[in-house]
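For the sake of transparency, this paper describes our internal protein records without simplification. Because each token names a local backbone shape, the row as a whole describes the fold. One such record is reproduced below, unchanged from the form in which we store it.
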Amino acid sequence: MNMRERILSTAANLFEFRGIHASGVDTIAAETRISKATLYKYFPSKNLLIAACLRDKSDRFYEWLNSRLSSKNANSLEILIELCELVEQLIMTPEFHGLPFHIASVEFPDPTHPINQYSAVLALELQGYFSKIAAGTGAKDPEALGQQLMILFEGAALVERLSPGIGAAKRAKNAAVTLIRASI
């Protein structure tokens, strides 16, 4: 693991378990066992480090989804159902602690703050990912379906984070499958 990856990994863990505001640059540098100067060489500001962590988490999520989605189902509603099952699976893993862009937007509630704005970009990106898959299946209104799936799974992620094991992810998946079948 190179230095940039080490810093990102350490920061991501601290942000996830302590919170973004509670994890200062001094703590991140100390936990990574580097100087602040070295940290700033790779990430000139904490905001840039936060954004890089959010981007990295998003990229890993898309890689995970894409590696599991069956290409043989790419043009059928089955890929959307498979997508819903994977999102439910992810939300239910013990390692899942919420959607990183949700957490960041809560810690930076001012809509003019760059981290809040970047969180909104990442949320729209995920909605676009859902919509793109829906478009490939011939959904009547892929943008609307993508947004509906996003609403369901964002809500399920939040409910499961607040009350783990309550069944919100499964209920969201079942509602999503109903929406998908009605949209094709």
About this structure: The chain has a mean pLDDT of 94. Residues 46-68 form the longest helix (23 residues). The two ends are 44 Å apart (CA to CA).
